[in-house]
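Annotated sample (chain length 147).
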Amino acid sequence: MIRKFREEDTVKVMTIWTKGNFKAHDFIDKDYWLLNFNKVKDEYLKKSDTYVYIEKEEIKGFISILGDGYIGAIFVRIDSLRQGIGRKLINYVKEKYDKLTLNVYEKNMDAILFYVALGFVNTKIQVDEETGEKEYVMEWKEEKVNN
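Output written by the structure step:
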């Protein structure tokens, strides 16, 4: 089941966020994520549309959308990876937006392959000013059927 994020989900979502960043972005110092923890928890979650994936009454993953279709975060619990949860979260927001964009680090090849498999294309390569790491700007657009 996917539902809207609630305030009481904060601790579990932030635990998934922290552990997910440590695993997926092991090429970035852990202090970077720890220094951004409160900003994400206190500001970002309040400004975004966040949805959580729940299975057996446990939050297994979440996705956060900022503005008009920008995926600022998508994370799945490490013990629940490769079970289709990320795909379900992406497909859920595809129903709400005609266009989705995201940034993904070039060194996070598993994520890049995941996004490509879901129809995202690379539109730009840039350097994340905060980390100095190269990242791709990827985009998905709903295909319009012409009759």
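Annotation: The CA atoms of residues 32 and 131 lie 8 Å apart.
Annotation: The longest strand covers residues 58-66.
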